[in-house]
Predict the 3D structure of the following.
Amino acid sequence: MLISFIHSLFIIISVLFLTALTSLSSVLLSFFDSSGGDLVHKISARSWGKALLFVSGIKVEVRGLSNIDFNESYIYMPNHQSLYDIPVLLGRLPIQFRWLAKAELFKIPVFGRAMKGAGYISIDRKNRNSAIGSLNKAANSMKSKGVSVVIFPEGTRSPDGKISSFKKGGFYLAVDAEVPIVPVIIKGTKEIVPKKSFLIKPGKVILEILEPVKTDGYNSRDEKIELLNKVRNILIEKYEALEDTD
């Protein structure tokens, strides 16, 4: 137990140091980045993700990259098990993307400014009008700049590792932006650092990119709910299949 505590404390200190360093570098890079965040994401955010995985002793097996066209825009929808889902996606998903992230993160000094510099999009789920505005901004960005967006459809980390209910916003965004949804499976991060725990264990994570789901034809509210259920069922089926292979 003591060894686990010391190991976790070392990682936490490393994470804080790397986050501060990366945030400062992101802010500086943003002054020279005319691409709307591409440079900051590629150099700072991706390096941060890789560094956190390295110091934490986490190995990631990436599967299914052949399912996506690197020249196309998508909305990536991963299941959400742990805080480590974020460095896994940043460090091992080799594409340009923007987070659709909760507004509270953008209020953190320096870190929030770094997120803005990377072109990430704030969403305030407590304010419906503000949330709709954020979704419209994301849709316009995808159409005009051709970027992809990552959003956790569960909205928060699962308490038990199983895939929870989905929020509707990401599916409205996908239909409005006229881009496919790519379901993404993350398996293994729950064991590395469970919700409400600070002990961090090294381990292996599977990051699997599934086939894109087309969003054209889902225009009405009921059709968008149908799309939501379709994507959720795909994720549940694939995740349970991975569980059975353990």
Q: What stands out?
A: The chain has one domain: 2-244. Residues 15 and 52 are 6 Å apart (CA to CA). The chain has eight helices and seven strands. The first helix runs from residue 2 to 30.
